[in-house]
Design brief:
Number of helices: 1
Distance between the termini: 19 Å
Largest sheet: 3 strands, antiparallel
Helix content: 10-25%
Mean pLDDT: 92
Structural class: alpha+beta
Number of strands: 3
Radius of gyration: 13 Å
Strand order of the largest sheet: 1-2-3
Strand content: 15-25%
Length: 63
């Protein structure tokens, strides 16, 4: 899979980030919340990212 960084909230590696793949999908890097109270299947996960990241991606016409 080829991954391209689209947008991030900072320039270091451990910040919320959105990546595009050559599969026509997005990868999202963020915190893994544990206090959500949801039942998530074992093969899935939740990632928490700031709204600012989505707004920036939309504003910059990246998604």
């Amino acid at each position: 899979m080829k991954v391209t960084k689209l947008v991030s909230t900072c320039d270091i590696k451990d910040c919320p980030t959105i990546y595009a793949t050559d599969r026509g999908t997005l990868l999202v890097q963020g915190e893994t919340p544990t206090d959500h109270g949801l039942r998530i299947p074992a093969h899935e996960t939740l990632v928490e990212i700031p709204m600012e990241l989505i707004q920036k991606a939309i504003r910059d016409n990246l998604i």
